[in-house]
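Re: the pair you flagged

First of the two:
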Amino acid sequence: MMNPFAEVNWNPDRPARRKFAVSLMVGFPCLAAVLLLVDHFRHGGWSARPGWLAAIGFAAGLLFWLLPGIARPFYRVWYFIGCCFGFVMGNTLLGLFFYLAVTPMGCLRRLAGRPSFSRGMDRNQATYWEDVEKVVDPKSYFRQF
């Protein structure tokens, strides 16, 4: 299970808070540009709503950059929400990949009669290591796979 909460600096210093402010000043206008293009292609016209998003995000980032002391609670809330999304999306995507890609491949291998490992345990056997025949042809070094 992925845990994005473990990697966040919950007590940011001044440079970390300024970096957060710069990310707001850059990120919100970029997000607004994407939303503006999506809105233009969807409705055939330009809307002022993404501009307001860019202006508010840039103003908040500028305020936090100028006064990094007031940015700490916003930093914590922002990263908490981001970690919540990361936790849900990461585990959901990992589960979907497992059940939509790995499980069908395993079922197909079993139906084809090709198990990926030998079944059963032999308690009298010292090791399960299988020796592989060594290739001595130098041409094999250029085509390894």
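Second of the two:
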Amino acid sequence: MLTRKQHELLMFIHERLKEAGIPPSFDEMKEALDLASKSGIHRLITALEERGFIRRLPNRARALEVLRLPDSIAPGLNAARKFSPSVIQGSLGRVQPKEAPRLQSPSNDDDVAASISIPVMGRIAAGVPIAAIETRTHSISVPPDMISGGEHYALEVKGDSMIEAGIFDGDTVIIRNANTATPGEIVVAIVDDEEATLKRFRRKGASIALEAANPAYETRIFGPDRVSVRGKLVGLIRRY
């Protein structure tokens, strides 16, 4: 999955390449996405490159190549260009996905049959927000009693801002898809369609507050149009 702006930019580049044979300029991309500055385009291109959707060709101006499109648009193209996604940590560095954490070693077939597989969608910062990661990296098995109704996914936690809520660096959190939250719930929040963070959801008048569970971090307050909820915390897995 891509953020709305990432998806818009990818499709704009793809269509321009089909029509003209060359990618659009940064000014054209900025105008097409109605962004205030080119820095926003640079961030989006970096995010698309790190997720394996595009590639910048070296030593050539305006040289972008579309490697794949979202599965819902062009599954055939993606099958032809098999890609093994990497996960970003921070804004630039790359790390490879960790081995899927195991809750327990199944002792018989009944245990295996009872477990439920959910996708791990990358790493989320529990401290300073990072670019939203929505590319499936692998799957993990969880017990059925950890899963309630609805769709679920998992995220690997990076950072220490939620330690007083019992969420530590390296934990894997189980998230139920949701676009609304009750004040006090821990949510996956998307800020400005570009950054993802794991925080406690609060309201301050007409504004939304994303509250850390570590006194070293300040509560961040945003206008309601700048924050969207992508899920609520329902469980946690920790490897020792």
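The longest strand covers residues 227-237.

-B.
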